[in-house]
Amino acid sequence: xxxxxxxxxxxxxxxxxxxxxxxxxxxxxxxxxxxxxxxxxxxxxxxxxxxxxxxxxxxxxxxxxxxxxxxxxxxxxxxxxxxxxxxxxxxxxxxxxxxxxxxxxxxxxxxxxxxxx
Length: 117
Ligand SMILES: [Zn+2]
Description:
Layout: H1 2-20, E1 26-34, H2 41-52, E2 61-67, E3 69-72, E4 79-82, E5 102-105, E6 109-116
Parallel strand pairs: 1-2
Antiparallel strand pairs: 1-6, 3-4, 3-5
Helix pairs in contact: 1-2
This protein binds zinc ion.
Zinc ion binds near residues 78, 92 and 95.
């Protein structure tokens, strides 16, 4: 499952940071993901909770923030967007063109914040 490897690398990064700063445990991790990144928030949360159980990080919080989709029309330059991938199939609000929209934001997957103790 995609989410397991995601949480693994997230915890790996957190542990490096914890080691580097001579801390003991993770308190909170914030992940920002694009609407097209394929992240299923509920599954990610579930994996996170399962994988920190019985570790020093048990009880840590996972904050998930979805970055909305932002598209740019290559024909008229209009930037538009939507909350999910359905927006990919909408015509450009500027010129009505259906295809070729460039994804400016939506594929990101970023560990944006770590709180450790
Ligand atoms: Zn357009």
